[in-house]
Write a structure and sequence with these properties.
Layout lengths: L9 E8 L4 E8 L2 E8 L6 E6 L9 H13 L4 E7 L6 H17 L4 E7 L1 H12 L3 E7 L17 E6 L8 H9 L4 E6 L10 H16 L6
Parallel strand pairs: 4-5, 4-6, 6-7, 7-8, 8-9
Antiparallel strand pairs: 1-2, 2-3, 3-5
Length: 223
């Protein structure tokens, strides 16, 4: 990251209740607002931050899997923060957004955080994971290689990479390359005949992500 752009201060939080255990959160920073959707129950001590591709957004790939998993994980002592970037596509700024999101979760007494990113967001999650001690695990979905070259610094935090063989946006060799760069513990899961948005493997992906995340930051674990 560019040291000249490293400072982003959280100056305030606005909370707008939504249905269920969700809230629309606006993180007011020194250089613009970060909009988020928070799935949270008091007492949850694990958390997941979900980030999308270069255009940002909240729902993620595979029919909005970030939203559906956020609803389910909240019952497993794992809160979720679905984060939309201030400046979508600006790699360094998006990393700073995630770091502010981690700081926000820490204020909720959530000190075990997993990062899940799709496409561009996977590289953002990997880099942010190397910078924050609160991050305990990282998942990259259909990841790009740009920005992920320092993935070896993530260890000993576990890394899960997931890709489809029919990805026409970012070929499956991208995740193979990141896996090669990374140190243990690391996993690479390849779904045959799945595209960039992993819709074809939705059920398998949902099951894998839920179990893997609960196993790293969910109920009954200590930091």
């Amino acid at each position: 990251m560019n040291a000249a752009r490293i400072v982003l201060a959280l100056q305030g939080v606005q909370t707008l209740p939504m249905a269920g255990n969700k809230s629309h959160i606006i993180l007011n920073t020194s250089r613009g607002d970060i909009e988020c959707i928070l799935h949270h129950l008091e007492g949850n001590s694990g958390g997941v931050i979900w980030v999308c591709g270069a255009l940002g957004g909240f729902d993620g790939p595979s029919f909005g899997i970030f939203s559906s998993l956020g609803d389910e994980l909240v019952q497993e002592s794992t809160s979720s923060l679905r984060l939309h970037y201030r400046f979508p596509g600006d790699f360094d700024e998006c990393i700073l957004d995630v770091l502010v999101g981690i700081h926000f979760l820490k204020g909720l007494k959530i000190d075990r955080v997993a990062l899940v990113g799709h496409s561009f967001g996977a590289a953002v999650a990997i880099m942010a994971g190397t910078l924050s001690p609160e991050v305990k695990a990282v998942v990259g979905l259909s990841s790009q290689t740009f920005g992920a070259q320092l993935v070896d610094r993530l260890a000993p935090k576990p890394l899960l990479l997931i890709h489809g063989t029919r990805d026409r946006n970012l070929p499956v060799r991208c995740s193979h390359q990141i896996h090669e760069w990374a140190r243990e513990p690391k996993e690479l899961v390849i779904y045959q005949d799945s595209g960039h948005f992993l819709r074809e493997c939705h059920q398998e992906l949902h099951h894998l992500l839920k179990g893997w995340l609960v196993g790293r930051v969910g109920k009954g674990l200590s930091s």
